[in-house]
Amino acid sequence: MILKLLLIIGVITTVYFLFIKKKPLQNTTEKRNDKPNDMIECSSCGVYVEISETILSNGKYYCSQECASKG
Ligand SMILES: [Zn+2]
């Protein structure tokens, strides 16, 4: 009887841990989808910059004003 009980508890904890391990993984992927960070390569130096921080000049994206003036 006690052995059976331990077996049941073991199965329950295994299932419980499987669910706990799955949850954080789902949360991280959801967070990644919430924040789409579009990275764009600087046309001058090749550094990847967030699209909101780029400088658009002559239809090309640059990481800084300095790179934009260089071309
Ligand atoms: Zn640059």
Class derived from helix and strand content: alpha+beta
The rounded Rg comes to 25 Å
- Lateral strand order in the biggest sheet: 1-2
Please give the alpha-carbon distance between the first and last residues: 79 Å
Count of DSSP-assigned helices:
2
The global form is rod-shaped
Share of residues in strands: 15-25%
Bound molecules: zinc ion
Outline the structure in words.
With 71 residues, this protein is α+β, with helices and mostly antiparallel strands. The protein has two domains: 1-35; 37-71, 2-Layer Sandwich (Wheat Germ Agglutinin (Isolectin 2), domain 1). 55% of the residues lie in helices and 17% in strands. The chain has helices at 2-34, 65-70, and strands spanning 39-41, 48-50, 55-57, 60-62. Strands 1-2 form a two-stranded antiparallel sheet. The N and C termini lie far apart (79 Å). Zinc ion (ZN) binds at residues 42, 44-45, 47, 62-64, 67. Zinc ion is lined by residues 42, 44-45, 47, 62-64, 67.
Layout of SSEs?
Layout: H1 2-34, E1 39-41, E2 48-50, E3 55-57, E4 60-62, H2 65-70
Antiparallel strand pairs: 1-2, 3-4
Bound molecules: zinc ion.
Zinc ion is lined by residues 42, 44-45, 47, 62-64, 67.
What features would you highlight for this structure?
71 residues; binds zinc ion; single chain; two-stranded antiparallel ribbon; Wheat Germ Agglutinin (Isolectin 2), domain 1; 2 helices; two-stranded antiparallel sheet; alpha+beta
Question: What would you say about this model in short?
Answer:
This protein has 71 residues and is of the alpha+beta class. It has helices spanning 2-34, 65-70; strands spanning 39-41, 48-50, 55-57, 60-62. It has a two-stranded antiparallel sheet with strand order 1-2. It has a two-stranded antiparallel sheet with strand order 3-4.
